[in-house]
Design goal:
The protein is of the alpha+beta class. It has 16 helices and 12 strands. A hairpin with a 4-residue loop joins strand 1 (126-130) and strand 2. The radius of gyration is 34 Å and the shape is elongated. Residues 1-28 have low confidence and may be disordered. It starts with 9 loop residues before the first helix and ends with a helix.
Length: 462
C-alpha cells in the first residue's frame, strides 16, 4: 500500500518533495544558521548555569542569543510570504515536470508519470487519470488493482465525463464504492477539457473527507486545467503536423501533367534519334517518380533534394536543349547535410522554367545555399523574364488551388511549419532582369545537429 501522500499535506510536503531553487535555498540557510546559533547558545547557557562559578555576562549574552534565534526561526518559518513562496516554487517545478511528461501528448506512459509526480504533493492516497473509457494512469493505494487499460468503474467519474463538472465527494458511496468496502472515503474528480469537450478525468482519492481542504481543491483544479491546456496544445501541434503532411501529399498528387506529357513525348522522340539517351532518360524518369511518390513526411538531406531537382532538370534539358536552359548549383559543403523538407527546391526551379523562359537566349537558374550560425539561407535565382508586382504577390497568395502556384505557396507554408514562424520565403523580381526566391530556414543548422546527435546516440544504444 502506498499512502505516503496521505501523511503529507502540501504545506508539509512541499519543502522536501522538490529541491528548492537558489532563491529559496538562501531562506533555508538562514533558518539553519539561526537554529544552529540557538542550539549553541542554549548549550552555552546550560553549561554556564551548571558551572561552579557563574559568569553573568556570558549567561546574559547566551540567553539573549538563544531567545533571539528562536524568535527569528519561528518568524521565518511562520512568515506567510515565505510559506507561499516555497509552495508556489514547488508547484511551478512540479508543473514543469508534468509538462515535460506530456511532450508527446497524454498517453498511458505519460499519464502514469504524471500520477506518480502528483501523488507525493497532495494529501491523497491515490491519483488517477482516465480518458473517456479507461484508466490511463494510476498511482498509490491499490495501484496493482487498477492497471492502465482497465475500465472506468465509478459512477462519479462517468458523471463528470457526461456533464464536464468538477466533483468533490465526501463519502465512498458518492464516489461509487460500497460503504465500508474500501479505505477510500473521499475524492475530487476534475474533468479534462479540450476545446470544450470532455476527453478524460483527473482524480484524487483520500482516506477521509477531512483531508479535502481548500488547498487540495485548488491543487486538483489547477492541475486539471494545466493538463487540459497541454492536451489542447499537443492536439494543435499534431493537427499542424498532419496538415503539413496532407499538403505534401497533395503536392505530390499535383505533379504538373504538362511536364509528365512533355517528358514522355521527349523520350519517345529520342527513341529513334538517340536510343541511348532515351534509355538513360527513361531510367532517370522512373527514379524521379519513385522518389517523388515516396513517403516524405520527415526531413531529408538537402543534397538529396538538390539531386532530385537536378534529375528533374535533366528532362527539361532534353526537351529544350542545353543551349536554352542551364542549372547551376553552388552549395557550401555545410549546406549539403542540412535536413530540410522534401519538395523545397524543385517547385521553385520548375516555376522558373515554366514562367521565366525568355523568347530568345538561355535561361540560367542558380541554386545557392549558405549557413549563418544556426540558420540556413537557400536561394533560387534566374535571369529570365522577371515579373510584375502583381504577379509577385500572386505567388504568395495564389487564387488557384492546384498547379505550380499552390506548389510554390506550399513551400512557404511547410518551411514555416517545420522551422517556425520566423522562417520565410522572400520573392524579388524585376521585369527583363530575373527573379530571386530566398528561403530563410531559422534554426535549420541547429536542428540538424540535434537530429544527428540523437541518431548517433540511438546507434550507440543499439
Amino acid at each position: 500500500m502506498q499512502d505516503s501522500g496521505a501523511e503529507n499535506s502540501i504545506d508539509a510536503a512541499t519543502p522536501g518533495a522538490i529541491p528548492p531553487k537558489k532563491g529559496v535555498a538562501r531562506v533555508f540557510t538562514v533558518e539553519m544558521l539561526l537554529a544552529t546559533i540557538a542550539v549553541l547558545s542554549g548549550v552555552t547557557l546550560l553549561w554556564t548555569a551548571l558551572a561552579p562559578s557563574h559568569s553573568i555576562p556570558i549567561m546574559i549574552t547566551a540567553g539573549a542569543m538563544f531567545t533571539l534565534s528562536i524568535v527569528l526561526v519561528i518568524r521565518l518559518s511562520m512568515d506567510p510570504d515565505s510559506v507561499r513562496a516555497r509552495q508556489s516554487d514547488a508547484m511551478l517545478r512540479l508543473a514543469s515536470k508534468t509538462l515535460e511528461s506530456m511532450q508527446d501528448g497524454l498517453n498511458r506512459e505519460s499519464a502514469q508519470e504524471i500520477c506518480q509526480l502528483l501523488l507525493p504533493s497532495t494529501a491523497a492516497i491515490a491519483v488517477a487519470i482516465t480518458d473517456k473509457k479507461q484508466i490511463l494512469g494510476y498511482a498509490g493505494y491499490l495501484e496493482a488493482e487498477n492497471p492502465a487499460g482497465g475500465n472506468i468503474r465509478t459512477h462519479a467519474t462517468q458523471a463528470t465525463l457526461d456533464d464536464g463538472n468538477m466533483r468533490v465527494l465526501f463519502t465512498s458511496i458518492d464516489i461509487g464504492f460500497p460503504e465500508n468496502a474500501t479505505t477510500i472515503k473521499a475524492a475530487i474528480v476534475v474533468p479534462l477539457l479540450v476545446r470544450g469537450d470532455v476527453v478524460g478525468t483527473l482524480k484524487f482519492y483520500y482516506r477521509s473527507a477531512k483531508r479535502i481542504s481548500e488547498t487540495q481543491k485548488s491543487i486538483a483544479e489547477g492541475f486539471g486545467t494545466l493538463l487540459s491546456t497541454q492536451m489542447a496544445a499537443a492536439q494543435l501541434e499534431e493537427q499542424a503536423r498532419l496538415a503539413t503532411s496532407m499538403e505534401l501529399k497533395a503536392l505530390q498528387n499535383q505533379i504538373n501533367p504538362h511536364f509528365l506529357f512533355n517528358t514522355i513525348n521527349t523520350i519517345a522522340s529520342l527513341i529513334r534519334t538517340s536510343p541511348n539517351e532515351a534509355r538513360v532518360l527513361l531510367r532517370e524518369f522512373a527514379v524521379f517518380y519513385r522518389r517523388t511518390l515516396e513517403n516524405s513526411d520527415s526531413l531529408i538531406y538537402l543534397s538529396r533534394e538538390v539531386e532530385q531537382t537536378q534529375r528533374y532538370f535533366s528532362f527539361e534539358v532534353a526537351r529544350f536543349g542545353a543551349e536554352r536552359v542551364e542549372l547551376d548549383v553552388d552549395l557550401v559543403p555545410e549546406c549539403e547535410n542540412m535536413m530540410v523538407p522534401s519538395f523545397l527546391v524543385q517547385p521553385l526551379v520548375e516555376n522558373a522554367v515554366q514562367h521565366a523562359m525568355p523568347s530568345e537566349g538561355k535561361l540560367t537558374i542558380t541554386v545557392t545555399g549558405e549557413v549563418e550560425g544556426d540558420d540556413v539561407y537557400l536561394r533560387v535565382s534566374d535571369n529570365g523574364t522577371g515579373m510584375t508586382e502583381e504577379a509577385r504577390q500572386g505567388i504568395m497568395h495564389p487564387k488557384e488551388t492546384k498547379g505550380i502556384g499552390i506548389a510554390v505557396k506550399n513551400v512557404h507554408d511547410r518551411i514555416v511549419g517545420f522551422f517556425g514562424p520566423n522562417s520565410y520565403m522572400d520573392v524579388q523580381s524585376e521585369l527583363g532582369v530575373g527573379t530571386t526566391v530566398t528561403l530563410f530556414l531559422e534554426g535549420c543548422a541547429a536542428q540538424t545537429k540535434s537530429q544527428v546527435a540523437a541518431s548517433d546516440a540511438e546507434t550507440l544504444r543499439r
